[in-house]
Amino acid sequence: MTRWLGVVEGFYGPPLTHEDRLDLLAWVSRWGYTCYGYAPKDEPLHRQRWREPYGDDDRARFADLLDRGRDLGVEVALVLSPGLDWRSGDEEALIAKLSGFRDLGAKVLGIAWDDVPPGGADLGAAHGEAVAAAVDAVGDGVRWITCPTDYATAVPTPYLDAYARAVPAGVEIMWTGPSILSPTVDAAGARAMGEVLRRPPLFAENFPVNDGAMSDVLHLGPYPDRPADLPDATSGVFCNLMPRSRASWLGLALAARYWTDPSTDREAAWQEVLAEIPGLAPLARACRSWACDPSVDPELGEWAEAALATDGKDTRLRDYLVTGCRNELDPRLAAELEPWLDQWDAESQAMQFALALLVERPGRPAEMAFVTSELWRRARTMRAQVFGVRWAYYPVTEWADGRFHARPESLVMGENLTDRVCRAVLTGG
């Protein structure tokens, strides 16, 4: 069985530039990735207008991407998403466009039916039969990946049963776990889904992606806590990018560390990979939150408590803040991170004033308190989130009654470090 280690450009939002994709290929090749999936949701000819052919410029870019990937040992999978308006008889258009990808030299092709109106066994059969028709018509020498409409479920559905029966053996079927974004997933669940799919699932990891209602949170923390036996219950993984390619490099490297060695220590791997990206560590420490853990970096929290307990005599938090978050950052990475760098600066300034006010205890000079409160207010009005998640809504779901239902843990609210420090200083708490 071929082990997949892939990354997919499958987010909502502006697609990556061609140059970003080329740089991304070079980065993931360093970490052992074998496939890059082209599937940007908001690229019109991939999804909304999928029947229309690509023009000469697009075809040239695809050919360049395929060649560069092959030189680096990374196959580029070209994917279509026809499910928004699929009709009986569309197989001919699907086959024509996929055959065009094959003629460009693509060795991996994909058909994605995700995030479209759900249905039962009839829809599953129709989608699976379309895949089968494409596989048969395009011919040999191509590997296939697919994503069904019911891709996030812990239980079998009539759609999935019909889909898996129709999709030919050897075609990969993606599964994101029991939820669209799965805070937890285990090998037993993956094996059970493999029984439904009649093949091991290809795990689609929605990390480090941050589109939709979680788009204000930047995922720069350790890889999600996954059990060591999960890889053996799957045929591999595809990780979904953030809409910022260089900002995704850290998370993708961490995913590769886990999927090539599931016994890897998450925290140690995070520290080691951070050292490979100059200047990112200060912001990454402030942006390590994810769905399971909205809280601040534990060490920063410890420093804050020590500063509060000693009336500012413990200076570790202040020293960290004074150092800043932009030193040594590659300008292209800094451009992607700008909203969060600005937020870091704003919150850092508020905390520094609060810590300076702390030193004045038992007094609380009014002018310093007013400045601290204003800086804190400004930081709270900005959208990007650092030093802990104030508010985010993650797609943590369960499948029931023919549709996705949001679980209560979708809403993530944690205490932000700036809030904690400024509140404690201004109130004496």
Radius of gyration: 24 Å
Total domains: 2
| Residue share in β-strands | 5-15%
Which structural class should the secondary elements be placed in? alpha/beta
Strand adjacency order, main sheet: 1-2-3-4-5-6-7-8
User: Would you state the CATH class of the largest domain?
Assistant: Alpha Beta
Number of strands: 12
* Cα end-to-end separation: 59 Å
Apparent shape: elongated
Helicity range: 40-55%
| CATH topology title of the largest domain | TIM Barrel
Runs in which pLDDT lies below 50 for 5 or more consecutive residues are none
Order of helices and strands: EHEHEHEHEHEHEEHHHHHHHEEEEH
CATH architecture descriptor text of the largest domain: Alpha-Beta Barrel
How many helix segments? 14
CATH superfamily of the largest domain: Glycosidases
Give a short synopsis of this structure:
With 429 residues, the protein is an alpha/beta fold. The chain has 14 helices and twelve strands.
Can you describe this structure?
- With 429 residues, the chain is an alpha/beta fold.
- The protein contains 14 helices and twelve strands.
- The chain folds into two domains: 271 residues, Glycosidases (TIM Barrel); 130 residues, no CATH class.
- Strands 1-2-3-4-5-6-7-8 form an eight-stranded parallel β-barrel, surrounded by four helices. It has a two-stranded antiparallel sheet with strand order 9-12.
- The longest helix has 29 residues.
- The model has no long low-confidence stretch (mean pLDDT 96).
